[in-house]
Write a structure and sequence with these properties.
- The chain is α/β, with parallel strands linked by helices.
- The chain has one domain: Rossmann fold.
- The protein has six helices and 16 strands.
- It has helices at about 5-10, 40-50, 85-90, 90-100, 110-115, 225-235; strands at about 25-30, 35-40, 55-60, 70-75, 75, 105-110, 115-120, 125-130, 135-140, 145-155, 165-175, 175, 185-190, 200-205, 210, 215.
- The strands form three sheets. It has a ten-stranded mixed sheet with strand order 3-1-4-6-15-14-13-10-11-16. It has a four-stranded mixed sheet with strand order 8-7-9-12. Strands 2-5 form a two-stranded antiparallel sheet.
- It is globular.
Length: about 240
């Protein structure tokens, strides 16, 4: 190893500028975090913090009410393994339902979508009531149903960005909707990687966006800022149903 050459190369490097330190939190964001909901891209939580969100953990399994927050983020996990406890915490389900029906900003992905449904099937086939703001029933399949990278294009300005914005992420779930929710508009279309027709997804209910896609914030800078801005104003930029 030519140490002199390595040192000379190091001395020639230009000093990198550190990103500006985040300012004080603009909003409080309730993030569901317990045995049922624990899948989050670390970069997503970091981006939300940098955009001005104070992350406030709460548990749909244990907590009887939402903390004092400006918005809610319900990520992925394994709610199907905790259906009885989720259903049994009626106070938490009622609190989330009221928050959604007030039009407050809520982003729910995969397991979060399942929690917002009318009911969720456990691995033995039993049905359990969930929050009930998304008019669908979720069933489980014994095999992995959906796996792959996804690219979505927003149809209109809303909770996570402007119309036409393209974001990327992935799907990984063994559940499915019995039928597409009737009368529920979709926020975006999922682009088919094989070149087929894009399909609608990203279900909108008042200020809520529920999706099976785990979107990664680095795929489009400004995604976290858009969500935090919606929480700061109390509006999700979505038409009310």
């Amino acid at each position: 190893i030519d140490l002199d050459a390595c040192l000379a190369l190091a001395r020639s490097a230009v000093a990198a500028e550190a990103p500006p330190a985040p300012g004080p939190p603009r909003i409080r964001l309730g993030v569901a975090l317990d045995e049922a909901f624990q899948f989050y891209y670390p970069e997503a939580l970091e981006a939300l913090g940098a955009a001005g969100a104070e992350i406030v953990p709460w548990s749909p399994l244990e907590d009887r009410r939402l903390p004092e927050v400006d918005g809610v983020y319900i990520g992925g996990g394994y709610p199907e393994l905790h259906t009885a406890r989720l259903a049994g915490n009626e106070a938490a389900r009622a609190a989330v339902r009221a928050f959604v029906l007030e039009g407050r900003p809520v982003y729910a992905e995969c397991g979060g979508l399942m929690y917002l449904a009318e009911s969720l099937e456990d691995p033995e086939g039993g049905r359990h009531p969930m929050v009930g703001v998304l008019p669908v029933r979720v069933r489980m399949t014994p095999r992995r149903l959906t796996l792959g990278y996804r690219e979505v294009r927003l149809e209109a300005a809303g909770l996570i960005g402007p119309a036409g914005a393209v974001l990327r992420g992935h799907e990984f779930h063994a559940s499915y909707l019995e039928a597409a929710p009737v009368g529920v508009p979709c926020a975006y279309r999922v682009l088919d990687p094989t070149g087929g027709e894009p399909w609608p997804e990203g279900y909108r209910v008042r200020g809520t966006l529920a999706t099976y896609v785990h979107l990664h914030p680095s795929s489009r800078p400004g995604t976290a800022d858009a969500f935090v801005a919606a929480c700061a104003t109390g509006r999700a930029g979505l038409a009310l149903r």
